[in-house]
Amino acid sequence: MLDDAEVKKVLVVTAHPDDVDFAAAGTVAAWTRRGVEVVYCVVTDGDAGGFDRLVDHGGMAALRRAEQENAAKAVGVTDVRSLGYPDGVVEATLGLRRDITRVIRQVRPDLVLTQSPDRDYARIAPSHPDHRAVGSAALDAVYPDARNPYAFPELLLEEGLAAWTVREVWLSGGPTADHFVDITDTFEQKVAALRAHESQTGHIEDVAGFLRPWLSANAERAGLPAGRLAEAFQVVDTA
Description:
This protein is of the alpha/beta class. It has helices at about 20-35, 55-75, 95-105, 130-145, 155, 185-195, 200, 205-220; strands at about 10-15, 35-45, 80-85, 110-115, 170, 180, 230-235. Helix 2 runs antiparallel to helix 6.
């Protein structure tokens, strides 16, 4: 794994607004607290989500973009980019790989955090088809696309985006977590970020209480002391 001092810039690639906040807002807050620059790339605007069907798809998309920007501010992130793909029908196409490759070459991160392409049968919610498609496309964008100057040559020839090698990827929501981040000290920021997604979490009266059981279970798996909270990832060496 990269040492903390080697991680200066992180790109987070997720399918929907709020995905990063459920999976990793505490970790993101810990990064930004120590000066790491974090950029969000959200593939869809989440137009198929939410509980208020009086809001049409277009209205929901605008609402959720705004919610994600507010949630990002709660954990110290100011750069939020949306690719505008339709919610619920994402596939790991060459076009999506190219669009993620473009952002990787623009941001030039040391580490990419994205969603696992693998289904978790023990906990199905993180294995939404959009999540798995985005994770697959993001991994392909990391390797081989972003580092290969002959992949999507228009990115170099027309946009001036030179090849870039991402050294490490963290996957969230998969079945084989092997790395845990203690987020006890940034838990309140995670809660604030999730509360910003009012269209998705407004029906949850106690967001903190909703989160604690599985974050506590992660901490127990990590061998942390009782009362600690943790987020879980699978680390992939891509250098």
